[in-house]
């Protein structure tokens, strides 16, 4: 099962891999036509009722595969208000091909007639709220008729995020849904078929620009809060690492980032930038006596990043264990802090970000072959019950069930500090997103930022170069097409 918004992610990933949406629409339309042929007698009359989005576009394609049937296509609205380029092109192909079409201006002008079959292509995954006019009147007419109703993707009125059915929704006899079933279809009294529309498996496996669509606020099923507050617990032997993480978190959209660090590095850390809020504590390094204070602070943040620059002193690692075992929010665990993860008992949602060496120390099996590595990481994450992101030429991200692979990044990024940047981006995204998605998007964004920096600096790139590229990668450079 897949939600409408996750479908859009995969769809955009497919486009990034050279399979544009118009091609998928052609497959969708073909699948709809096949379903119509299955229920139609040779002399059946077919009425296509289409909306102005891509759900309608699928039906326009289907019409070209239904030659020989008596088909009339009604568009609910003016052709120039069709919302996407590809749906408009497929509508134009019907007009140019002398197919029988009409555009319904308003609900009063809608007359369903008495067709044998209705193709319901008014609304698919793009529905927002209850049916408006003229869709509402059209749905009532469809439900009143004796026609066999074939719905495209979902019955118009089903919300593919939540599975909720509007009161005025179309009652389908058959549903042809694409790629995978959608929430709510199971509960319908309809014959549902899933059509393979040729989306490459890689579009789900690899993290691509489509994954970043989750950062849009268009998702009707989600109620994301603000952009999140992140606490970085780091520093001691090193001051640069927590600063790199904190700045990356800010660039990745966090509203507020605080850094809790030992007094001795507080001033140095503050020197890295006026937008860092530094909360120093007594001492030269993290120790168990700070656990209470840090846990209290952590509770007021949406995500914690723990590890950058902490060092591996025994007291420090003990304190890490204390923090993780007392915390129940979302935490990104990096660097030396990773050592204590396998033995800690915690209610927190962890995102562990080891490189291969750290992963081996945690007890994970490493491999140079990315597919084998993906299997190892998946099993490790399943045993741990947490999200694990193992960095490499191909980063592997898994929660034990779903495993994603990221291909962005380059050899120039082996320079110190890029891992701290990744931890910071992950923290910012984890403040508002599901942990697995946050880790996958962060790996992609960090690598893309590195690729952009590499274009300018080649092997001379340094971790701070990535900071400036992050906003561009996350919000401007993601491409996308209607
Ligand atoms: N992977 C994918 O995402 C694919 C999607 N395809 C099709 O594209 C569909 C999604 O297309 P779109 O995103 O264009 O969205 P839709 O075509 O589902 O709906 C968008 C249109 O409906 C209007 N609308 C929204 N809510 C309404 C309401 N409550 N009452 C009346 N009108 C309303 C919008 O203003 C817009 O014109 C899928 O359901 C599927 O049929 C396929 O073409 C191929 C692949
Ligand atoms: K539909």
TrEMBL record:
UniProt cofactor(s): Mg(2+); K(+)
Binding site for (6S)-NADPHX: 54-58, 124-130, 153, 241, 309, 355, 420
Catalyzed reactions per annotation: (6S)-NADPHX + ADP = AMP + phosphate + NADPH + H(+); (6S)-NADHX + ADP = AMP + phosphate + NADH + H(+); (6R)-NADPHX = (6S)-NADPHX; (6R)-NADHX = (6S)-NADHX
SUPFAM superfamilies associated with the record: Ribokinase-like, YjeF N-terminal domain-like
Gene: nnrE
GO biological processes: nicotinamide nucleotide metabolic process
Annotated protein name in UniProt: Bifunctional NAD(P)H-hydrate repair enzyme
Species, as recorded: Halosimplex aquaticum
Keyword NADP: yes
GO molecular function, a single term: NAD(P)HX epimerase activity
Similarity section: Belongs to the NnrE/AIBP family.
Domain YjeF C-terminal: 207-477
């Amino acid at each position: 099962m897949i939600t409408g918004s996750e479908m859009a992610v995969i769809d955009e990933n497919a486009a990034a891999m050279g399979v544009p949406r118009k091609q998928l629409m052609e497959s969708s339309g073909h699948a709809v036509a096949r379903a119509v042929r299955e229920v139609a007698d040779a002399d059946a009359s077919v009425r296509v009722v289409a909306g102005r989005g891509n759900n309608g576009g699928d039906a326009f394609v289907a019409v070209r595969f239904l030659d020989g049937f008596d088909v009339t296509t009604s568009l609910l609205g003016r052709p120039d208000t069709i919302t996407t380029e590809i749906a408009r092109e497929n509508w134009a192909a019907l007009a140019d091909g002398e197919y029988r079409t009409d555009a319904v201006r308003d609900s009063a002008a809608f007359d369903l007639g008495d067709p044998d079959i209705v193709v319901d292509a008014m609304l698919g995954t793009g529905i927002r709220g209850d049916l408006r006019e003229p869709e509402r009147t059209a749905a009532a007419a469809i439900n009143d008729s004796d026609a066999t109703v074939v719905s495209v993707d979902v019955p118009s009125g089903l919300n593919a995020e939540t599975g909720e059915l509007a009161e005025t929704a179309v009652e389908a006899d058959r549903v042809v849904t694409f790629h995978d079933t959608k929430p709510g279809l199971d509960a319908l009294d309809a014959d549902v078929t899933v059509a393979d529309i040729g989306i490459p498996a890689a579009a789900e496996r690899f993290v691509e620009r489509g994954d970043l669509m989750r950062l849009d606020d268009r998702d009707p099923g989600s109620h994301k809060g603000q952009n999140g507050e992140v606490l970085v617990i780091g520093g001691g032997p090193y001051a640069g690492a927590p600063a790199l993480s904190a700045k990356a978190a800010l660039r990745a959209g966090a509203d507020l980032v605080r850094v809790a660090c030992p007094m001795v590095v507080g001033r140095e850390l503050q020197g890295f930038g006026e937008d860092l809020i530094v909360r120093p504590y007594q001492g030269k390094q993290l120790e168990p006596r700070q656990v209470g204070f840090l846990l209290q602070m952590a509770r007021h943040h949406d995500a914690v990043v723990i590890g950058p620059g902490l060092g591996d002193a025994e007291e420090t690692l003990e304190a890490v264990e204390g923090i993780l075992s007392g915390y129940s929010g979302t935490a990104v665990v990096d660097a030396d802090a990773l050592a204590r993860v396998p033995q800690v008992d915690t209610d927190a949602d962890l995102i562990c970000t080891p490189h291969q060496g750290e992963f081996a120390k945690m007890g994970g099996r490493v491999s140079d072959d990315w597919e084998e590595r993906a299997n190892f990481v998946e099993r490790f994450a399943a045993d741990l019950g947490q999200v694990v992101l193992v960095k490499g030429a191909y980063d592997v991200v898994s929660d034990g069930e779903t495993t994603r692979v990221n291909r962005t990044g380059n050899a120039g990024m082996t320079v110190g500090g890029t891992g701290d940047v990744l931890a910071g981006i992950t923290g910012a995204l984890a403040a508002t997103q599901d942990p697995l998605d946050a880790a996958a998007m962060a790996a992609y964004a960090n690598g893309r930022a590195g690729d952009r920096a590499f274009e300018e600096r080649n092997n001379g790139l340094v971790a701070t170069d990535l900071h400036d590229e992050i906003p561009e990668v996350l919000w401007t450079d993601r491409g996308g097409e209607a």
